[in-house]
């Protein structure tokens, strides 16, 4: 993976592109975020994500997917565990023919695990990786189509996205607990007028302790996480509803329409209106993967 992306959460080339890659899973020094649906297949071993205020344990051989616009971080990984990562651009995900409830669940922060009876084999996933890396345009198109079908199947089969795996003896560090509590509060109250002081008070933590915990675990400040989370929620509303942009800006806690536009352009690389138009202009039958 692009090293700058790992460290900063931002692509330095080919932004918003479909991508398949294989590497050795490792813990992340900081959280990152990007505007893709991320699909992971750990070929063997186990790893743990801190995602959307929860620890999510992943077992080898079972594919998982989530919306990566929500800051996330791997905090525990089995040594030398091979991992295949697939990045499906949000715009392509929105164009999939899936039911509205499943799409909303992903955009609202669900962490979906593939059902045990429908595991993608390591051979298939490795073939995707090889064909994407070495194949021509037609083979890449085939990989893109197969991944989209696989995502649709997983969401169709998905029954209980909250079924947690046992923690396998992983202890929850107090700093991680502070971070989880704060992210839970942000996820529930992001529409409100929030400050570091008010969030720390709700969590019964000193503001300095709150920010230190966030920086130690996620690599960003509490208020930066709040901004990113508000942006993720706004993108969801733009794609899923016909509500006015002014209303979305207000409901997502940005305070003013001007501030919302400035942050959206800076972080998403486009305006809220253009993002909404793009989200509605794609048809599943005509999408081609970026080259």
List keywords for this structure.
alpha+beta; 291 residues; single chain; disordered C terminus; 8 strands
Q: In terms of topology, how is this protein built?
A:
Layout (H helix, E strand, L loop, with lengths): L2 H6 L10 E6 L11 E7 L3 E6 L2 E6 L4 E4 L4 E6 L4 E8 H5 L5 H8 L4 E2 L8 H13 L2 H21 L16 H16 L6 H8 L3 H11 L4 H19 L4 H7 L5 H12 L3 H10 L10
Antiparallel strand pairs: 1-7, 2-5, 2-7, 3-4, 3-6, 5-8
Q: Using the alpha-carbon principal axes, give the shape.
A: globular
Widest sheet: strand order?
A: 1-7-2-5-8
Outline the biggest β-sheet: 5 strands, antiparallel
* N-to-C span: 17 Å
Counted beta strands: 8
Identify low-pLDDT runs: 1-15, 159-171, 282-291
Q: Which class of secondary structure composition applies to the elements?
A: alpha+beta
How many H/I helices? 12
- Estimate the mean pLDDT confidence: 80
Helical fraction equals: 40-55%
Rg is 19 Å
How would you describe the overall organization of this protein?
- There is one protein chain.
- The chain is an alpha+beta fold.
- Helices cover 47% and strands 15% of the residues.
- The two termini are 17 Å apart.
- Strand 3 (46-51) and strand 4 (54-59) form a beta hairpin.
- A five-stranded antiparallel beta sheet has the order 1-7-2-5-8.
- The chain is built from twelve helices and eight strands.
């Amino acid at each position: 993976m692009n090293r700058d992306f790992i460290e900063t959460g931002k692509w330095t080339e080919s932004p918003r592109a479909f991508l398949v890659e294989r590497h050795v899973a490792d813990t992340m020094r900081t959280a990152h975020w990007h505007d893709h649906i991320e699909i992971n297949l750990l070929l063997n071993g186990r790893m743990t994500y801190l995602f959307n205020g929860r620890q999510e344990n992943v077992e080898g051989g079972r594919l998982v997917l989530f919306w990566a616009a929500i800051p996330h971080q791997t905090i525990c990984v089995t040594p030398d565990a091979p991992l295949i990562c697939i990045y499906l651009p949000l715009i392509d995900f929105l164009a999939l023919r899936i039911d509205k409830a499943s799409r909303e669940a992903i955009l609202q922060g669900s962490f979906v695990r593939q059902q045990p009876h429908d595991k993608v084999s390591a051979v298939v996933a490795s073939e995707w990786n090889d064909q994407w890396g070495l194949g021509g345009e037609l083979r890449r198109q085939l990989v893109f189509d197969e991944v989209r079908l696989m995502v649709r199947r997983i969401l169709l089969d998905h029954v209980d996205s909250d079924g947690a795996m046992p923690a396998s003896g992983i202890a929850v560090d107090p700093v991680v607990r502070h971070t989880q509590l704060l992210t839970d509060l942000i996820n529930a109250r992001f529409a409100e007028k929030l400050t570091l002081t008010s969030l720390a008070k709700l969590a019964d933590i000193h503001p300095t302790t709150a920010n230190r915990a966030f920086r130690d675990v996620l690599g960003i400040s509490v208020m930066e996480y709040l901004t990113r989370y508000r942006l993720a929620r706004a993108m969801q509303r733009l794609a899923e509803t016909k509500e006015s942009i002014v209303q979305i800006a207000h409901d997502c806690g940005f305070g003013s329409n001007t501030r919302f536009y400035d942050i959206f352009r800076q972080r998403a690389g486009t305006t809220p209106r253009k993002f909404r138009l793009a989200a509605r202009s794609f048809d599943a039958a005509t999408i081609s993967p970026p080259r």
